[in-house]
User: Fold these one by one.
Assistant:
Number 1:
Amino acid sequence: MDEDMDVPPSIRFLYRFEFDDREAKEFEVILDSQSLELRSAMPEEEAPDWARLEVGTCSGCPLSCNETRTCPAALSLVEVFEFFARAQGHDEALVTVETRERTYLKRCSLQVGISSLMGLILPASGCPIVAPLRPLVRSHLPFATSYETVPRIASWYLLQQYFDKRSGRTADWELSELAELYKRIESMNRGLTVRLDHQKVDDASRNAVVHLGVFGELLNFSITEDTMRDVLDSLFD
C-alpha cells in the first residue's frame, strides 16, 4: 500500500528544544488520526488551579463551570507553560519538529518556538472556540510566517465555502465568519494571558501567546480592510 494511503491510528509530532545551558526538553503531541483530537493532554485530575475553567474564562465561552472543571485549552498547555515559567521570550533554542513525513529545524527565540507548538496544540485541545481550525493541524507548518499563515488559512476556508456551495449551503465568500472566528480566538488568547498572570510566569509563554495572536490580527485586518487580495497576490509576484 502507498505510504500516503496507510493511515496510522494516531498522528505524532515531536517538538524538541535544545538549549545552550541546560538539558533539552521534548514535547510529544499525539493526535487521533480521524478526529484530530489531542490524545496527549494531562489528565484533568492532575491539572493545577490556574487551569480551572473559572480562572480567566474567555468572553463567549460556551462551556459551563457546573459541567466542565478545567479549560481544555489551558489543560492542553500545562506542561508547556510550567516548563517555560521562568524563561525569557528572547532566549534562544534549537527547535526540531519531527513528523511522520519530514523534520523541521530552526534556531529561534523561545516565544517563536512556543508559539509554533501552541498553534499545533490549541485547535486539537477540545476548546470549542478554536476547534474550527482543527482540520489545519494535519498539515501543521512549524515556524510559519504571516505570509505563509494568512494565505494558508484563507485558502482552506475558501475551499470549505466551495464545497458548501456545491452542497447547496450558503457560501461565505466575504470571509465574514472567518473574521468573527478570529475575534473569538482573540478572546481565548486574552483568557490564556490571564491564566499566565495567575501563574506568575516570566515572559516567554506570554510573548508566545501575543505572537500567536498577531496572525489572527493580520488576518482580520486583511479581511476588514479588504487587503486580502494584496496578501494573496504576493504569492504570485
Number 2:
Amino acid sequence: MDPTAKLLNDYGPLRNLESLDQKLRRCWKSAVGATIANHSRVLQLRGTTLHIGVDDAVWKSQLEQMHSHVLERIRSTSGAGLIEKVAFRVVPPRIRPQAEQTPLLRADEADRIEDPLLRRIYKDSRRKAQA
C-alpha cells in the first residue's frame, strides 16, 4: 500500500469527511498501480458493486481476467470490505482542453478584427503603405 494512502486511511478525522466513492478514487492508483490507473478510473460505487471505467475493450478484457486480484487489492487498500464485485465498462477518456499556446512572434493586431474580409483589406492596405 502506498504510504500516503495508508496514512490518510488511518487518520480518523479525514476519513469521516470524505465519501466512500472519494476514498475509493483516492486509493485506486495505489491499489492497482500507476499503469492500470492511467487507463482506468473509479466511476461509482453502486450497492456492493464498484464500477470502473476503462479506456478500451482490450483493457476491459485484461482487467476482467484480473477481477479477483483487483477486488482483493481495492478492499485491502481502501478498507472497504463491503465491495463484492468490480464491474468494468469502456468509457473513453475525455479530451482535455489544450492550454492556449503563446505565439513565438508578436501577435498581429489585425488578427483581432473579426470580419475576415475587413481583416484582409486592413492587412493589404497596411502592406501597401509599408512598401
